[in-house]
Amino acid sequence: MSYRLWIYRWGCWLCLVSATTARLDAEDSANVPSKYPDGPLGEVVRLGETLVNQTKDHPLSKPFVGNQLNCTSCHLDGGTHPSAGSFLQTAAAYPAWSPRENRVITLEDRVLNCFMRSQNGTRPPNGSQVSVAITAYITWMSSGSPIEMNPRKPLGPRHVPELQFDWTKANATQGEEDYKTYCLDCHGQDGLGTADGPPVWGPQSFNDGAGLSRVPKMASWLKVGMPLGDPSLTEQEAADIAAYINSHQRPKFKLEQHLPPQEKLGEYNAEPNSR
Ligand code: HEC
Ligand code: HEC
User: Fold this and answer.
1) Do residues 85 and 221 lie in contact, with contact meaning Cβ atoms separated by under 8 Å?
2) Residue 219 CA: which ligand is closest?
3) Separation of 113 CA from ligand 2 center, angstroms?
């Protein structure tokens, strides 16, 4: 084989290999990494995984939770679900601009916000074991993703896509019928939950400062997440059921009730009355 042909063959073989590797990398970044990091970092990542799955019961996170939900109640399969509250690739979008807080926030801040609102609990201190472990777990799940910070909102590339729908057409009365058909078995007639599903309204649910308390966000999440294992609602059904669920009482969000004592707060400078 001539020298030139050799270069051509091997050069091309190499470029094929690198093209394939690049493609695999892109796919890999959408998957859970196959291996935990070595050493103490791996232990912290595993702890974060446990906390995401057992948030309301684990002794480290329980003190900061005010309802019967775990992170995995909404971030399905511990955040490994590709669309219903996915944590895959999420860390790549942070630090991100938060219009609500009128400042740039970190992934850790974002985690702590879900404690205050979706978990109806108290904001754990920045840098606390619980906060670092969960943030490490979510960051690990973004391994291989190129960093692409989000200048518009604190959301990662796989956040729940918001349905394009005329929300004035969401009908809570029809939603009640659909809820009985598709949801009641697991979430209960009274919405307070059963052994097969957590509460969707009432005192043990998320508060009215949480994303899911807004009908468009709830409907969009239902469309990709519920009924569990068989998300098959039409857009109209998702909108109607979301309107029905959110017509019920749930805890009221008052920011000052969800902050720890000042000396445990670290730097948190959102507007005092920000919703
Ligand atoms: C009641 C449901 C619910 C619970 C419980 C919940 N979250 Fe969330 N979380 C949401 C919703 C809704 C969003 C917005 C996601 C979207 O629009 O895709 C969100 C967003 C996030 C984000 C930003 C995601 C992104 O794409 O940038 C992080 C990180 C997060 N939550 C972490 C947590 C952690 C950690 C816990 C447990 C301590 C938790 N959440 C509990 C509903 C919940
Ligand atoms: C087979 C049982 C089952 C069915 C049917 C079901 N869910 Fe769920 N749902 C669950 C479970 C379990 C979770 C928590 C996920 C986890 O822990 O893995 C959940 C989580 C939720 C959540 C977020 C957490 C919370 O409690 O606020 C909402 C909202 C929800 N479901 C609404 C619905 C709606 C609306 C329907 C009907 C369209 C429905 N579900 C059907 C079992 C079910």
Assistant:
1) yes
2) 2
3) 22
Written as six digits, the tokens of 91 are 């860390």
Please state the pTM of the whole predicted model: 0.91
- pLDDT per residue of the chain (275 residues) written in tens, 0 to 9: 344 434 434 444 444 443 333 333 344 447 899 999 999 999 999 999 999 999 999 999 999 999 999 999 999 999 999 999 999 999 999 999 999 899 999 999 999 999 999 999 999 999 999 999 999 999 999 999 999 999 999 999 999 989 999 999 999 999 999 999 999 999 999 999 999 999 999 999 999 999 999 999 999 999 999 999 999 999 999 999 999 999 999 999 999 999 998 888 887 777 766 66
**Distance, CA 211 to ligand 1 centroid (Å)?**
8
Which domains occur in the chain, in start order?
39-159 (1.10.760.10), 167-245 (1.10.760.10)
Amino acid identity, position 154: P
- Mutual orientation of helices 235-245 and 215-225 as an angle, nearest 10°? 130
Give residue 215 CA to ligand 2 midpoint distance, Å.
16
Alpha-carbon gap, residue 255 to 270, rounded angstroms? 10
Ligand closest to 229 (CA) is: 2
